[in-house]
Write a structure and sequence with these properties.
Oligomer: heterodimer
Strand content of chain B: under 5%
Number of helices of chain A: 22
Largest sheet of chain B: none
CATH superfamily of the largest domain in chain A: Sodium/glucose cotransporter
Distance between the termini of chain A: 60 Å
Number of domains of chain A: 2
Number of helices of chain B: 1
Amino acid sequence: MRTFDWLVVAAYLVWIVYDGLKRTKSANEVEGYFLANRSLPWWAVGLSVMATQLSAITLVGATGQGYADGMRFVQFYFGLPLAMVILSVTLVPFFYRARVFTAYEYLERRFDLKTRTLASVLFLMSRGLSCGVIIAAPSVILSIILGWNLTLTILAIGLPTAIYTMLGGVQAVTWTDVKQMAVIVGGLVAAVIALIVGLPHEVGISQALHVAGAAGRLTAVDFRFDLNQTYTFWSGLIGGLFLMLSYFGCDQSQVQRYLTAKSVDEGRHSLLMSAFVKIPLQALVLLTGVLVFVFYLFNQPPMLFNREHADKVRKSVRAGEYAALDADFSRAFEKRREATTALAASNEDERAAARQAFDAAGAEVKGIRLRAAEIVRDVTGDDRYKQVTGDTPTPDVNYVFPTFVTTRLPMGLVGLMIAAIFAAAMSSIAAELNSLATSTVIDIYRRMIRPEGTDAHYLRVSRLATGFWGLFACAVATFATGLGSLIEVVNRFGSFFYGSLLGVFVLAIAVRRANGTGAFVGLLAGIAAVATFALHPSTKGVSFLWQNPLGVIVVVAVGTVASLAATGGNVERT
Amino acid sequence: MPSADASDRRMSRVYLLAIVCEAVVIAALWAFGRVFSS
């Protein structure tokens, strides 16, 4: 990175922290600190909802997915608009009428304290750990790509976020989210323009898209019903619907965003705005990755994008073999470049033959990459190199976009894109910290430890809780980066709860005879069922999106039966 | 202030619009893939 790029990143950090700290004055009571006195406009809340969901790993990972596997990942979001409509009709008005601070407060009003506490503890455990992962994942990538110190990178992302969130509360989170979304979208649009401008003179955008299509990168919708395919129209629409219902309806980090809106209708509008914009925005992120793929058809990419692993191999006994493979890769790339140029220039009659040559050249490049991945796996012992996403070794996927940004973009744009990655990370972390502090103070401290404190006391404790979770997340991030597989474990751990938590809310609203005991037993049964389903050898390969409907069904079924058993079939309302 | 009924009717229209927009976006993505993959 050049000096000017450093200045851009530094200017972004100063601007965001200053903007966050400006909100400190308006966070002088607990309702102002956690809910902005329910005064924010729908558009700001909507942008905050989107910024919270779009983490750095989503930005970097999704562009990598676009590069390696094309647009099919967009199907993951097909359930989102439906989920937003269902939530706007059901849970959102419930939360507003109950004037709750957290989603779990509602569970005590409907069921009992133990169900509320279990739900909030599950949230605190999974979100506390995942907040560390949200910091760790981009920090590892940025430190490798830019040669930064890993701990300093973690602190550069985590500490400024913790400081402005701690002092400015939810106002700081929301208004910085608005600006961070602008930085992210601005960065992406600038990258797309740079990619289009960077195409060879003889290749227009339409020809580039035809080449991407020939490589299978533009197939965005797959109507096959195959449970083992992670992203299909059906897994996205049905599995994704349940996941999004759970995320936006039961996860405090999202519920708190729309509870800050001025009214129930403004809260609904904020969710619907996210529904309107999310799929096109995600398509833009993936298309950026597809255009990076096209760019690298004409400009030689590295054989493997994770520079750290490649460097390890170059220092090992297999360095000679790797160097020979690298030379083969250069030759194969040249062949593919010629085949790509011929395909781009082909007319209707020539297209079939040109496409055959292009496919053959692509297969050769893929074969060499996979042999390189095998060497990396032998040298580093990293078993994830067995997995392949599209034609790229899976651990390499997250390094594609940062490599492109730092080696191919012009000065200034590099700084802007690194700032966009920071923005994506910080906006998600800030919302997580704010919601973790809310649940800690409202569901645990004020409810069970000190119910009679003053507002000023709870405000002090809230700031301390935010600071604690910030430090906790940075500590988890530092630990997680040393254990690559821990990141996957944390993600998987979190996914066990999502469908089950949604199941408890469905039980609360849809089953009149459900009671606290039934909800508690049902929630535990749902988590156990999803964990068994996810880990059992016979169902392990099924797309994780199907775990969410399963969790809901088990919680509602077991919860209903247990409620009836607990009351001997009599109606019990709490 | 709008009545609760008027607000509900307006929101129903917004929900319908959200679902129609989703269908249009999915159809556009499908068509985009078909056109450039042929």
